[in-house]
Amino acid sequence: MVPCLPDVSLLRSIPLTSLRTILVVLVLAVLTTVVAAVLLPRTVPAITRGGTVNGPARVARPALRTVLRVVGRYTARTVMVSVPVVLVMVLGGLLVNRPMHYVRTVGDVIEAVSPRSQGVTRVTPLPDASVYDAVPASAWKASFHDAGDGSQEATWTGPVSGITLPVRLIVPSGYRPDDGRTYNVIEGIHGWVGDPQSLVTGMASPKRLQEAIDAGRIPPSIMVIPSVNVDGSQHDCVNIAGRPAVETWTAEEIPRMIQATFPNVSTQRAGWMLMGISAGAYCAARTAYDVPQRFGSVGVMSTFDRPDEGALAHGGKQLRAQNTLSTMLEARQPDGLRFYVMGAQDDSTGSARAAWLMEDAAKRPDSVTIDTPAHGGHSWVLWNDFFPSLLTWWGSDPAVFKAAGLPAQEGDVWAKATAAGVKPLTETPKEQRVVGSLSPMRAKPFEINGLGTIIVAVVASLGALGTVMLWSPRWGRRRDGVKPSVARLGGAILGRVVVIMVTAGLVAVTAGIGANASGGFYTSWRDLRASVRTSVNAGK
Q1: Does position 152 have pLDDT exceeding 70, yes or no?
Q2: Based on the domain organization, do 235 and 261 belong to the same domain?
Q3: How many angstroms from the chain centroid is the CA of residue 102?
């Protein structure tokens, strides 16, 4: 009889943004903690009334047997303690992932930690317009349904690329196809790891978009966010021979789908903006270079100058150099393309440096507006804070309002926006420009990435682990070998439950601090607190 094995596909499909999954992990963490608290004393040698371990002291055991028993005891303790610790770490990851939607399923995690290596043969050009024109008109329309977070969702297949992926849509309040208005369009590209919902909830895009429209900072606009997770690989950005035609999808098919589904969107280049965050920011700029007739503006939030992820990053030095944003911007024929390039100076990806290089490379009539705050790292709180600034910048061009058939804003646009709480542009003087994230040696001792914080976290975790592993198993035992009372045993079990949970929390925090320090995501406790508030209020 063949034993029943778990369905691998079923395991890969476990949702990681579901409240049910979070509750299951929480329950398992509590149960395994209780089990460990009850069983840990069984790893301690028995005490006889004579005060010896497992028999009279005069009985000498073979050294090897003694060593093996000691190893076995501590191996058992390690397993008992490790399970709830790992579960608490998983629980923390799930709570962070839920509002930001870095990954949706276990399968996404597997693909993210072991992305498929793709050998780049060559970058292929986009198909000619005749290829798209030959597609029946009905194939360009998509049917969206309410997603419950201020956005709509559809799963749509690009008729030329053949890519089938989810697409998120945000429409302003009161939108109707026959309302007599002309709507501009923003296309957003998410980062890696991530998905379209991350741009919806992580930046509160429905709320921010409506606020900007209501305040008159931008004309009525639709925002579309396609998934670019064509497989387990990092973002390609461009069409690669033998790979899914992801640029055909983002640069041509998504705009054509929007035009077919929403007939009252602007047909003018100035009425369309392509934007992205992180890896999506690089893709936004790189894509805009290839379709200058499609987008008049590009919002670039925390990009890298040279490709750092995906096929372009792993295709050799020459391919990376050829696809450097600043180099391509300097080499392109300028045609009035507008760039907003934002990056914090303490971002470890060098996004501020990318902004400055692109500013130096631009040639009129192209233009680059830089926004390089001193702090912010590479984080959702930064993008959430500066998304209104991006929208304000976009609407500050009279051509954007003209594309929607509306008069341009009057007065000092930025002064009005700043008075309403929008962050102003941070144009850093060249003599004050600092590149790179703060290392633990350079950061303030007890900031989130500070050396003092790291040392305290490690020492506290090791101390807690030592307490659990060496001391707590003996709690509740009497030295004289007499059976302890029920109250004594119950108190000891409760104490172990508490110390195991504290240990798990400390280890999870220490791991988080280490991951943050290596990735440069948050550079201050203030930003972390703001990110927590952002996560709690995501999508509201």
Answers
A1: yes
A2: yes
A3: 5
Q: For residue 326, report the phi and psi dihedrals to the nearest 5 degrees.
A: -65, -40
DSSP alpha helix (H) spans, 18-167: 19-39, 63-100, 106-113, 129-133
Q: Are residues 239 and 281 in the same domain?
A: yes
- pLDDT of residue 325 exceeding 70, the answer is yes
Q: What is the mean pLDDT of residues 28-42?
A: 94
Identify the domain containing residue 45 by its residue range.
29-82+450-519
Report the C-alpha gap between 515 and 72 in whole angstroms: 32
pLDDT of residue 57: 44
> Are residue 378 and residue 465 in the same domain, yes or no?
no
Q: What is the pLDDT of residue 299?
A: 98
pLDDT at 337 over 80: yes
As a whole number of angstroms, the distance between CA 196 and CA 183 comes to 21
Q: Is residue 109 part of a domain?
A: no
Assess contact for 227 and 151: CB atoms under 8 A.
no
| Whether 203 contacts 242, CB under 8 Å | no
Alpha-carbon distances of 413 from 205, 262, 391, 393, 427, rounded to whole Å: 21, 29, 11, 9, 17
**Residues 350 and 318 occupy one common structural domain:** yes
Specify the DSSP element, H or E, that contains 153: strand 152-157
